[in-house]
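Study this fold:
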Amino acid sequence: MSAAASPTSDSLLRAEQVSKFYGDVLGVDRVTVSIGPGITSLVGPNGAGKTTLMNLFAGLLWPTRGAVTVLGQRPGHPELYRQLGYCASWDSFPAGVTAHGFIARYLRLHGYSPAAAASGASQALERVSLSAVARRRADAFSQGMRQRLRLAQATAHDPRVVILDEPLNGLDPLARAEMAALFRAWATGGRCLLISSHILHEVDAISDRVLLLDQGYLLGAGSVPTVRGEIHRHPLQILVRCDRPAELAAHAFSLPHVIEARLAGDETAAASAEPGAPEPGAVLVKTRNPEAFFLALNQLAAESRLQIETVAPVDENLDAVYRFLLTPDTEAVHG
């Protein structure tokens, strides 16, 4: 297991013995890492320090100790943000502003002319499949549409480094597949993508490299060849919010890889809901093969016009996988 990576000539993101404390609370401690082109994913339980590390690279936080550089510069340099894109796990859209208007205004802040900003906004929305709703109000979007709009904003100015905090959260299976393919295309073009996610089978599928964090410490850097097997050993629990939950539960239960499918209780459904979001029913599915379940969900949605609002893993069911990866005598992460 390798817990740190030495800086290399192609490093675009670097952290040197970086620590961040929030008063007496530890965010990250003595993290040293060097990240080059391609897709690097941050994995770890809630509270591991993933968002803190991403915010340090994005310049939203300043380290208590150590140094962070992006493209050879300290975060905060004005010119740096022309080459850096950041998709946070939250958003706030001005009331009444359309999706196209929101991206165009963002590009104007980057110095684009009005015509270039309008063209760039159209291209960014097309990239994330939002062209059809470009003139709709962004503050009225569903969770999945808001997520795609955040991705459009993060990449509209064609940055070299893209930092994505839970970018697949809230997307339906088809949109997840589309965004994963887009990430790979960006990486193939030489960009550096830093992604955090709880969806381990997707991390394993799209990542060139994985950084494992726990309680603020970087425990390993490398590939994770055993993640897919561990997911099959510890079934993933997925919460699906849709318009016909009873129909979905019956269909899911008939699938050979699904262990359990039931209507979610109010507490589980409420915990996954976005503030102000509509209240469709929810189904809790436990499966040993997430890929097969997502394919089946896509097929059901296409054939029966099932309206899917959100699809998300239930975090506590990943704890067993993380515990396996964090076991000291298990070489789950190889440098």
